[in-house]
Specification:
The protein is α/β, with parallel strands linked by helices. It is built from 12 helices and 12 strands. It has a domain of 202 residues: Rossmann fold (3-Layer(aba) Sandwich), CATH 3.40.50.720. The strands form 3 sheets. A 7-stranded parallel sheet has the order 3-2-1-4-5-6-10, sandwiched between helices. Strands 7-9-11 form a 3-stranded mixed sheet. Strands 8-12 form a two-stranded parallel sheet. α1 packs across α7, α2 runs parallel beside α4 and α4 runs parallel beside α5. It starts with a strand and ends with a helix. Bound molecules: nicotinamide-adenine-dinucleotide. The site of nicotinamide-adenine-dinucleotide has 29 residues, from α1, α4, β5 and β7. Nicotinamide-adenine-dinucleotide (NAD) binds next to α1, α4, β5 and β7.
Length: 338
Amino acid sequence: MLITGGAGFIGANFVHYTAKNHPEYEIIVVDKLNQQGNKANLDGVIDDIEFHQFDLVEEDKLRPIFESGLDYVVHFAAETNVDRSIEDPDSFVSSNVLATNILLRLSRDFSVKRFHHVSTDEVFGSLELGSNERFNEDTPYDPRSPYSATKASSDHLVRSYFHTYGLDVTISNCSNNYGPHQVPENIVPVFALMALNDGPLTIYGDGKSVRDYLFVLDHCRAIDLILHEGKTGETYCVGGGEEQNGIEIADAILKVTGKPAGLKKFVTDRPGHDRRYAIDYGKLSRELGYKPSVTFEEGLRQTIEWYRSNPEWWKPYMKKFYIPKFMQEDAKRLKQER
Ligand SMILES: NC(=O)c1ccc[n+]([C@@H]2O[C@H](COP(=O)([O-])OP(=O)(O)OC[C@H]3O[C@@H](n4cnc5c(N)ncnc54)[C@H](O)[C@@H]3O)[C@@H](O)[C@H]2O)c1
């Protein structure tokens, strides 16, 4: 089984999950180790897998792995940070679109049994705040950031290989993941580490934009189900059933860490910030029996406990904390205020 992006947040959790639950598989990871990739995420399994560091667009390095014979490709690798995509869309086109096409073409040429593509609910655009609408497998695509536009492109490419070449594919579109090994560039780890270090929890805009939150281990279980039992050519939406806005997440993290409300600070909103994402995972439940196993509060407790117990993992990130360009004035102001 080739797991691309297996040193990233979700990919690494999936490598650990698969090594434990399917010891019969030989796992090969390819990861270029960008800002999010970290080989230390594979501590504990690294001796049992094959690891290669290179960019998936380097086809000459990828081809021999396919030549050696693969049953499954599980494709996590992508440039994933929406704020970074606003600053540098080109690298998103290369990793998310071009690399996906190379993987698909090799999967077709070397008769891979199943190609599972991991995608996002961001391809569906934005929902109204306060509405009951949720994304499902029939929602039309309406990506709005360079990140979501490149993920949408890759989804279309995957489907085209199914229809045109008969490649066995499945796709999952999931909501916001949180859990162990997530670098502090997303709201949950940023707020968790800020709370643990008495720093500001920087809430974008009015803090009312809503996302659905999915605990990463529930996501791993869902992918495992789809990979082994999903129908070829089908798409499955995966969610955690937990809608939360920025203020609610900050409050929940302050409660779990026992830190004061005064750490909450409002900052400039992300340009083009989508208002609400919500996901209907009914198809995955009905057809494959999926159900999230933890509430947001329980998942948050487990996540914060992991960060508390692994300071050697997150301390290096605190020295090179990524601050999006639109937030740099706020960052200066907050530093002066401290
Ligand atoms: N994190 C979320 O909340 C979320 C939500 C929905 C969908 N997804 C999707 O799940 C997948 C994994 O997300 P994640 O949060 O683990 O991301 P991540 O950024 O933590 O990990 C991605 C990994 O891919 C690697 N990578 C990127 N481009 C590469 C390339 N060209 N060649 C080789 N390696 C490359 C990176 O080095 C990194 O280790 C992505 O496809 C993402 O779009 C994530």
